[in-house]
Amino acid sequence: MKVDFKNCMIDINKDYSEELNKFLTLFSPIRETIYKEEVEEEFHDEILVIGMGGSILGTETIYYALNPECKAIFLDNTDPESTLRKIKSLENPKVYVVSKSGNTLETLINYKLVKEKVKVKEFIFITNGGKLLEIAKKNNYRVLNIPEEVPGRYSIFTAVGKAPLSAVGVDVKRLLKGAKALDQIDEKHEAIKNAIIHYLHEREGRDISVLFTYVEALTYFGEWYKQLVGESLGKNGLGITPLLSIGAKDQHSLLQLYLDGKKDKVITFLTVDNYREDVEIEFENAKKYSEIIKAEKLATEKALTNRGVPNITVELKEVCEEELGSLLYFYMIQVAFMGVLYNINPFNQPAVEEEKRICWSILRK
């Protein structure tokens, strides 16, 4: 994985050592998770993961990026049509029910639905308390815990991700190896630089962060990124707004806005050096199919730069466990450090709790 800042268009030369020291203290529980490899599940050819937000998005990111042969279904909404369609295809799944608090409304109702409608091989609860822990004890389900100091959206390297991913055949040790490769965190760390760049641009009014992925397999990474940024930084009237675009498709929908609309955006291109599937095809001077999308990305980058739109490129060698581990950990560092720069807590989400209280009140009435 490498990061290219040549078009970032901002000076970051300032001493941030005080903020870095504070960050390292706050971030230590998350760092510890990448050195623990104790969660390994037996392979099963069909699994179901029930969760919301940080309890499921990281697992979806890795599963859909790697696309292992094992069948995995994810219940992460309460839309009846979508949910019922998904569970109809299940035959005898191993089911992981994930909620740190154990009181997530959507997770509780989807567990109840699956319990009543699906023949299940085994339920495994990944939780620390609440109603889920009560259910697990009552039914003698196996329970895996999450470190208390690790928020859900930073928990992919805990049992939250390790358990279901190892059950579908993902090499979790390689995933952790990729994260560890980025763990020498100092003022020169590329994720720290990226945090400072986005923070300084936001101070100048560029408060929309566009993740423009030219790897369609990483679409769910964009969903994980949106939650990480939104819940970590959207506090006290501060933060940046995350958006997801897919290249080259969105060159024909949103690029006009990015080029000629308000100059309130920082673009991050997400690319790979080697696509896992490719084919030889002659078109103009291109010899491979992948050269087309690479040319489109380069053209978009140059057009944005010519228009004064700051942009950064994050390039993976290929889509594999190590590179995904590095990518996820990179953005955890970046977003958590931005929280320190804003002088807010990047590990809570207090405003969201209001909606939860109101919804429970509506249901109980």
UniProtKB/TrEMBL annotation:
MF annotations from Gene Ontology: carbohydrate derivative binding; glucose-6-phosphate isomerase activity; monosaccharide binding
Protein's UniProt keywords contain Transit peptide: no
PROSITE patterns from the UniProt entry: P_GLUCOSE_ISOMERASE_1, P_GLUCOSE_ISOMERASE_2, P_GLUCOSE_ISOMERASE_3
Pfam families attached to this UniProt entry: PGI
CDD domains found in the cross-reference section: SIS_PGI_2
UniProt EC number: 5.3.1.9
GO cellular component labels: cytosol
GO biological process, one term: glycolytic process
InterPro entries for the chain: G6P_Isomerase, GPI, Phosphoglucose_isomerase_CS, SIS_dom_sf, SIS_PGI_2
Record's keyword terms, sorted: Gluconeogenesis, Glycolysis, Isomerase
EC class: isomerase
PANTHER family per the UniProt record, alphabetical: GLUCOSE-6-PHOSPHATE ISOMERASE
NCBIfam families tied to this protein: PGI_Meth (NF040629)
Protein name as annotated: glucose-6-phosphate isomerase
